[in-house]
Amino acid sequence: MKSYLLAIGLLCSAAAWSQNPDYALRTAWFTQNGSARNVATGGVMGSLGGEITANHVNPAGIGLFKTNEFVLSPGFLLNNNKFKYRGTDSSNNKQLFGYGASGIILSSGTNRKNQKWTSSAFALSVNQLASYNNRIQFKGFNNMSSFSEQYLEELTRDRADTNAALSNYIFGSSLAFRTYLIDTLNGPTGNFIGYQSLVPISTGVNQSFDAITRGGYHEIALGMAGNMEDKLYVGGSLTIPVISYSRDLTYRESDATNNTNNDFSFFEFKEQFVSRGVGVGLKLGTIYKPKEHWRIGFAFHTPQWISFKDQVRASMTTNTENYALGTRTETSDALNSGNAGKSEYRLVTPWRAIVSASFVFREIKDTRRQRAFLSADLEYVNYRGSRFSAVDKNDQALTNYYTMVNDVIKDTYKGNINFRIGGELKFHTVMFRLGGAYYGSPYADKELKANRFVASGGLGYRDKGIFIDLSYAHVFNKDVQFPYRLNDKPNTFATQTGSLGNIMLTLGFKF
User: Is the separation of the CB atoms in 272 and 248 below 8 Å?
Assistant: First the structure.
């Protein structure tokens, strides 16, 4: 873990403001979302097909359609977060609207007589792969390290003089230096020998981290599939990821003592970060029926190539009591002609592979009689495969930076397997569904405990070309959150538990 934290710390101080490996995980580690039927059955769609979610998982599944279909899937999310940071527990709740797989499917029907390919289907759909609407909030007492030390590391590493400290790091170190959170350190003869933090770490500070995040990972999919004699289905979809993410961060440290003469009362750092991205990818798949009741599926998701444009603003307010005569505030806008900092870069997401099997129970002669299915997916995700790159290939410093980020991604993350299982029991027009899923940790270091477990269920009604599905999925979450990272000290982090509730309603019409 030490080498991982050292590398992360170097990256976080490599520029006044840049991307880091955490950004890559937002587009890689998420639970399966889709229509209410798909959510209720744990997200199994690798071999089942006949459902609009297949366009985002295994496009061969839309080849099972013999009629046209229009689908809408509004949803509601319930975040329940719990954090433990340096022995202090905290929690918060956040509710918000979401949605699942929605769109239209057009089928050629079964009009192709005496042809090898008996039917085909086209789908245009949109799905929210992940929601970023959340609140990460924790606090605790710390007498081991301070947020301010990352500024010391940056200035020391760059051998920055006072002019550089004043103007070259306008989203971090310069704000700290101008508000006297960081100041010069002089030798016995009064000569400049480095920098110091005014935070009294030895007696401890009360730390609080509060980040409100918004946005989502959305995917538009244009898919097509063919049906060969109801035995083999082959399909592909062109995917267009559309990503919006914003974070309003407030971080604060305050003196844990009652000493009003130790040259520190508090500091508060605020940051407003906005990221927008759009890209392209491809999903390919096949489903084969070796026997009447069995379906076997395989799907491969290529990496998605996404171009991002980010903006950031930051401010620092510091009270060093008698040292700088009270409270001082500085903003990045004041140092950047009122403009936000801007960055453009590209991200390649990890590839995925899904193998799946389904067993379908049914009455051949009378489909209105009781039917059921049981399906399972095994998904491999290469989390360490994310790669950043600079838009400007002539900027060698930025190119070297992203090379360093990518090396850390390979050391920080690992490939892992996700497992999903679900089933449905049908009584004429009413269906009952249950499912579950397990998503393993993306972190290579075993000290960073993380996983997601999903338990789900739902009901469905189908009659006369209209269907209504309602589902609920409960995601048990375990993760870690770092308030800051340093090079020369053990890094501290908050352990995150809690849950995410996903309520999904799907309305569909066959025509």
Answer: yes
Contact 224, 121 (CB under 8 A): yes
Domain assignment present for residue 181? The answer is: no
- Rounded CA-CA distance 155/168 in Å is 10
Number of C-alpha atoms within 13 angstroms, CB side, residue 240? 8
Range(s) of the domain holding residue 20: 2-143+202-324+339-510
- Report how far residue 326's alpha carbon sits from residue 51's, in angstroms, rounded to the nearest whole number: 63
State whether residue 252 is helix, strand or coil. Answer: strand
For residue 217, what are the CA distances in angstroms to 79, 242, 279, 476?
A: 17, 6, 11, 20
Question: Could you report the average pLDDT of every consecutive run of 10 residues in the chain (511 residues)?
Answer: 44 50 88 95 93 96 92 95 92 91 89 74 96 94 94 90 92 95 86 90 95 96 93 96 96 93 94 96 96 92 96 96 90 94 93 95 59 94 93 83 88 94 92 96 90 96 93 95 86 92 96 90
Number of domains in the chain: 1
DSSP-derived 3-state class of residue 100: coil
- Contacts of the segment 387-395: beta carbons below 8 A, 24+ positions apart: 387/347, 387/348, 388/19, 388/23, 388/24, 388/345, 388/346, 388/347, 389/345, 389/346, 389/347, 389/348, 390/345, 390/346, 391/307, 391/344, 391/345, 391/346, 392/344
pTM for this entry: 0.89
Q: How many residues does the chain have?
A: 511
Question: Is residue 208 one of the residues assigned to a domain?
Answer: yes
Instruction: Answer whether 151's CB lies under 8 Å from 197's CB.
Output: yes
Q: Residue 221: enclosing H or E segment and its boundaries?
A: strand 205-228
Whether 151 maps to a domain, the answer reads no
C-beta of residue 316 within 8 angstroms of C-beta of residue 329: yes
